[in-house]
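Q: Is it fine to ask for two folds in a single conversation?
A: Yes, each is treated on its own. Send the first.
Q: Here.
A: Result:
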Amino acid sequence: MASSQQAKSFKSARGLLMGLAAAACLLAAQPAEAQTPAKRPPAAPQTPPQAVPQAAPQAVPGFWDPRRRPERPDLSRLTVIRFLTETDYPPFNFTGADGNPAGFNVDLARSLCEEIKVTCTVQMRRFETLVDALTSNRGDAIIASMAVSPQLRARVDFTDPYYRVPARFVSRKDAVMPEIRPEYLEGKKVGVIAGSAHEAYLKAMFTDAELHAYPGDDAMRAALRRGEVDFIFGDAISLAFWINGTDSGDCCAFSGGPFVESRFFGEGIGIAVRKGNDVLRQALNWAMFRVWEKGRYTDLWLRYFSVSPF
């Protein structure tokens, strides 16, 4: 990867996620509808929906449309898949109690190898070394929460996405809104990380909100807890873990649904393979569909993510 910033549009999200976790996606196997509010001409003020308690059921992401079942590729040339992943990015990648690689990405890689019926190895490396290791044939595929980007596409090929990192609003529990539109936040104070894609999105789409930029997660979240802002807006996976963790003090909940505008929040997270390795790329795409179709992806997601970011 050219740099860790290029490597993940997620890397701004990585700053948001380090220490917690780092996935919106398509829900229930149907393509997710992004809330992408358009700028509108002035209109009569609208009253936002009455605040209601947050009680969203767990949702499982999936980018697989059952109407687009991939054909089984020729798998005869595959005998082993050497996966590369990173060292410390829980719950996606971490070292287990037995010293072996563990995490959502690792278990998904092993499920794909079981489906393809090939031997699977998983090697952990520092994130910034993964692309060089792949291109120098020290591995066959990278499964490390790597966000697809034009810069990376110039160096590697990607499978279909297997998750996406949505953005969401969070409010205090006594002010939860089931739906959020630009007109609902007119004059509202919204906290966001300075210089992030989330700030750029708010500036483009929520022009009547009063933005308050913070240097990092801790300051932004503390401002919401103290009531200095009405909402915060950021990485939904990181926020889901915070909402359900002790640091939040059970103060807050999601408001409105996920925002997945790719121009701001990226194309999704895929598995990287060497340029031109269509045999492996197609095999992994087929295996991901099969793992999802059999319900194993859902089981895996729920094992690692008990709090829905969607």
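Q: Second one now.
A: Result:
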Amino acid sequence: MINVTLRQLRYFDALAHHRHFGRAADACAVSQPALSMQIREMEQAVGGVLIERNARQVTLTTFGEDLLRRVRDILRSVDELGDFARASRDKLAGRLRVGMIPTVAPYLLPKVIENLARLHPELDIHVRETLTPKLIKEVAEGRLDTAIVALPVSEPSLTEVALFSENFLLVRPGEDAKTPVPSAEMLREMRLLLLEEGHCFRDQALSFCNMQSSPPREVLDASSLSTLVQMVGAGIGVTLIPEMAVTVETRSAPVTVSRFKHPQPSRTIGMVWRKTSPLAAQLQQISEVVSLAARALRAPKQDGAKEPAKRAGRRKVA
């Protein structure tokens, strides 16, 4: 009988994820020698080499890759035992692993955490911010309980729940405040600043400008919405940002923010989780809390978007 411990399985999973002994050890809160020793003992137990060791990174052997899929199935099943126990409680409590995309997390996360802490103080919330493909993969593999992403994700194994929709706004240099808002066709001839490849928001912006089939005249990439807005303020070009980001990202930049004519570009933000998750009912409750947080963020805009611009003297919303 093969004698492999749950600890060894988790160490191997972490090592496969990080592809580096030091980072895997940090993630598991153990020393690097201790993790390395457990991996060697696991290799002896299963009777095969799991990894190729070199100075820079870890590479899984073919046997290691094959075993990894089974290991993750086992770990997911073990984690679901805890989820079943948590689901049997009358109140939300315990660890909750939530993922968010970068174009949502900085703006929505503070209010979500505040509301969850008030309504469900026994929740231990762990947040991961990364791109949609990684979040979907980690939810499907059981590394995350849920993720907040742009819909649809069209993953058959996941439940999708729409939370809210928001428009995209055009950000231009401040001196353009009195010029007409360009159409989607006109944007193709302008220097358009976008998030780097991998961000779903980039794809949505390109879709609005109908740039999928033919490359734009000139596109510059950035890693964050903050950088995009600052580049616009410096006169480098124009960009699109989601409505929830406007207040935060434009408060210190000399830019003007405008709405497109109808139909306005928009996106739907939602929560996803595994259809087999024992926490499905609890996650549905949490989705309602997230929806309320998003509604609170959008509520001030109904009072008039131009008022903050007058006080700041730096930007204007047209």
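Q: Anything structural to flag on that second result?
A: Two points. The first strand starts at residue 51 and ends at 53. Confidence is low (pLDDT under 50) at residues 299-315.
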